[in-house]
Amino acid sequence: MEPPPPPPHHCTTTTTAQLTATSLPTPQCFKCGAPTNLPSPPPPPDSSSPPAYIPIRLPAVNLPPNTAAKTQQSIVLTPVPQPHPVPPLSPPFHFTTPIKRITSPSDASHFIDSFSGKSFLSFVAFLSHSIRGHKISDPCPVSDTLFKIISVFDALSFWVDEIPPALQSARYGNPAFRVWHQRMTENSQKFMLDILQQSDQPEIRDSVIELVPYWLDSFGNASRIDYGTGHETNFAAWLFCLARLGLIHEEDYQAVVSRVFVKYLDLMRKLQLVYCLEPAGSHGVWGLDDYHFLPFVFGSAQLIDHKYMKPKSIHNDDILENFSKEYLYLSCIAFIKKVKKGPFAEHSPMLDDISGVPNWNKVNSGMLKMYRAEVLEKVPIVQHFLFGSIIPWYDHLSFLP
């Protein structure tokens, strides 16, 4: 049996003289390298400045090599954020409606190097430190303030059951989310006042004018019907405001993560699944996760010094099934595997790479550094961050106000 004939070439018999007569590069046959009459393929897009937002509806793309190297280098050079006590807000109070201030990369750098930025990042690091080595179900003190917050999340979750998704053919953006969001907005001031009643300072209750905007921006955007790490960061900022106001104390931090943040995460996943929220600013395949970041920070802290589970354990489905309810990191991996199809290394290559890190301490340090570099220093995310009297904006770089 004779072998099949070779595939046709597209080369021509162009002479060397003809090649040198033109200054334009001549297309070459992909089989033999000879000149061809077929036009050259269009040049690739400029990869030096990848778009800040790639819609999830488009095919996922890999981060260009030069940009990936710069990103990795910036994370490596970033110092590991350290936990420090939250500076309390002292009277006299001058509460005001918070506004946006960040419009450029220099503004983002200004914020992260300022007193407000350093204090907020230290608060996140302190929350991470407080949950280190603890399971979600581990006993911990839960204050009256945290009980109030948990009851609010129970109400918000119940409303999702009361407001079913509308029938539609679109993959993302169920308009019923706007009904839920409107109900949440209408009740937000009442929620804040119920929480603020736990304070022994009556004047603290006037802070509702600042707390409500952070709260409203913690659950996604009702117009775009999307949700992302910027909204998650606003929820962390809301918790930071409560800490500055003295409603949350350091002894509450473990419960803030294992009770309050877990409730928040459960609610957001429910909203994402029921109302098909579109990922806001998703980086597709070269992002950590389409919606969240902080569960990976807190979850990696939980697993530090664990006797049996290592970063590579995320590939063990039995471990995910048995322990995802106790560890946030495993919960995130299990959720991703539930909603995404295909090999894990293809749809989540960054998490797959992180699974090769030798221990959870390095994973946690890297997550904290990445949170600073890839969330708090990225304009598309922090341009929505709000500043008022509780989280002030400083016109000059300084650690002290």
TrEMBL record:
One of its GO terms (cellular component) is cytoplasm. Its EC number is 5.2.1.8. GO terms for biological process: mitotic spindle organization. Keywords: Cytoplasm, Isomerase, Rotamase. Its main location: cytoplasm. GO terms for molecular function: peptidyl-prolyl cis-trans isomerase activity; protein tyrosine phosphatase activator activity. InterPro entries: Phstyr_phstse_ac, PTPA_C_lid, PTPA_sf. Residues 30-56 are annotated as: Disordered. Residues 38-48 have a biased composition (Pro residues). It is found in: Cytoplasm. It catalyses: [protein]-peptidylproline (omega=180) = [protein]-peptidylproline (omega=0). PPIases accelerate the folding of proteins. It catalyzes the cis-trans isomerization of proline imidic peptide bonds in oligopeptides. Belongs to the PTPA-type PPIase family. This is Serine/threonine-protein phosphatase 2A activator. It comes from Chenopodium quinoa.
